[in-house]
Amino acid sequence: MPFHHRAVAIVLTAVLINSIGFGIVLPVLPRLVTQLAHVGLAEGTRIGGYMLAAYALTQFFAGPVLGTLGDAIGRRRVLLFSMLAFAIDYALMAAAPTIGWLFLGRIVAGIAGASYGPANAVLADVTPPEKRGATFGLMGAAFGVGFVLGPAMGGLLAGFGTRAPFIAAAVLAGLNALWILVALPETMPAERRRAFRWGDAHVFAAFKPLLEAGNAGWLLAAAFLWQFAHMVYPATWAFWGELALGWDAKAIGWSLAASGIAMALVQTLVTGKAIARWGEERTVVLGMLAGALVFAGYVFTRQGWIVYLLIPIGAFQALAYPSINALLSRMTDAQHQGALQGGMASLNSVALILAPLVLSQTLAYGAERGFPSGNFVLAAGLAFGALLIVLLRVVPRVGAANDRVAEPVA
Length: 410
Fold this sequence. Notes:
Distance between the termini: 29 Å
Number of strands: 0
Low-confidence stretches: 405-410
Radius of gyration: 20 Å
CATH superfamily: MFS general substrate transporter like domains
Shape: globular
Number of helices: 18
Structural class: mainly alpha
Largest sheet: none
Order of helices and strands: HHHHHHHHHHHHHHHHHH
CATH topology: Growth Hormone, Chain: A
């Protein structure tokens, strides 16, 4: 049963509310950036990339700190702090008089955004190892459902001005904090906690046990390339929609909502069954293949209706990340699940630091020369690279380890 512990439903609901708040602001972000910075759309694309990189740089340092802190003082307090920080972030962005204020809001969000590590650790605390892949898939489904509601709401609220979605997001984040305060139980008992040490609160310490395992290094490399490629959506989708397709905020919102519906269906109905039938390593292959093919398809897309043909195929890329997370979780003991998830957040943050800069610059450079799809050319190449690593280095070793049965994945 997916809701085998009440903390699962509470965390998934918190993630749902949080993703609504994240997605609700995306349709109006290009317009707000260009208004506050007094620039054209191509230059606004570059500024949007810088903003997301600032967010990721902050999250890079905050991720392992919050993950290790959750191992020391419990998950509930860390999640509550993060949700309050999100509420402050969206309030700052709603009131931002200059582009500098938007950057400050993204820095605050970088700290709060590291909350997905402790949230995943809650699920790991209450879920047996063999069930974690399906449970992590539900986490992705909650995020996907939020993307159904969030961008659609943002597109509709855009009619009330570019600030309205940010105000709504601040309210949702405040309600999320209240929900965690009154409903979430602590899942990290005192006897399993470990003392907080700054020496453990960085990405290298969090991944030390995994980097010493023979197969994990290749899996982490594939995860990094995949996350880099996947950042093409949050980093450039709204700007690409305007540049390549001539979409307005409402059209961007509906496209993101449609993508969220498709991914939520896959994560809810397919992820658990796919992992049970084929194993995490083969499910990763299926997800990465779907993503790489759809990235390549967007390179040639110049009409909006084609996007809606590609979205159902691209939805299967949602299989990749939960399967990677489940494989890595199986390699880590119970006392270090929080550190693992914090480390994963920081690994993602490295991709988030680099990807917005590279992808947004690539999109802007191509758009200025009549080719507004260079971002998807790069994303497709990175995704195919990650797929090759998994096929050549991860699948054979995991299969050999499974054949030995008595030995853990190494």
